[in-house]
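Sharing a chain and its predicted structure for anyone who wants a worked example. Both blocks are below, sequence first, tokens second.
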Amino acid sequence: MDNMRYMKFSILIFILIFTFICLIFSGCLREYDEIHITDMDIMSVPKDTGTELTITTYVQNNQNTDSGSLTLRVTVEDPSTNLNVAEKETGIGYIKSKSQTYYRVSLIVPEPGEYLIEVELLENGNVLSGDVDLITVKAVKDAKEPADILLTDMNLVIKQYVDGVSKVVVDVSPGIYNQGGDSGPLTMEVRAMVDPYSVYTKSDDMGMIQGSGRVRGNVQFILPKNSEYTFSVNVEENGRTVVSGNVDEKIRLNEIIFNTPMTYSIVEEGKPPVVPTEEHTESPGFHGSTAFLCILLVFCIIVMSRNKS
């Protein structure tokens, strides 16, 4: 009897440990007290010796203390050969507690084609975070080719509380990608709407965006915290609208953690929303079915043990 109880207890412990490991690796227990890369932008500029890639990396320190000495390591890989074509490490100093900042690193790639950009954030030699993006560097474009501007996504960060805690200062940064030739001067307008009578509008003069360039506009709102907002983005070139779109969900600011960047998809007007494939339909966090089965097994073992006792 003692051996049977010991075996059941061992199985119970094993299942609990397995469940805990599943939760950790699935991200359900992810801590927010960390230093990590939140996003990166990539801009390409043709040069005499190839194409210069400028990678802008956004880094967030959610800890209550300043970081140690940080380094960014950027690697450019040719996915067709799995060979590195460029690599650079840059010391970026430290980041103050509860703050976000960005850094730029430039490298040269020799010719047009697809490249895998990997950025790693290191603290005292240890890798803290990373991000990867696949880009296409196109051949030098005809100066007469028109720009082709696409909206990518929108970053939102609550930076400050004002008027007590009834309002918040919100940084909003929609991203755009120019898959055509060089653009003329661009102006980005961002709207935050509660209803047709409560609309907040800000704009950013972005200047000219070169072909294959990726950049972000940036505007700042002061908004009532307890409202639900629909965000929309409109980009004009020389006064003519070239692209516009809406964030694909309504945003409640009082549900967002202070100083924590959030990223939202933008659906361009005239285009249907992207329907995720099966392999991308899993929600963040742990896999519900795995956790449920583990918990069910634990429950059954406990019930069986009680009945036999």
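Comments welcome. Residues 2-26+287-308 form one domain.
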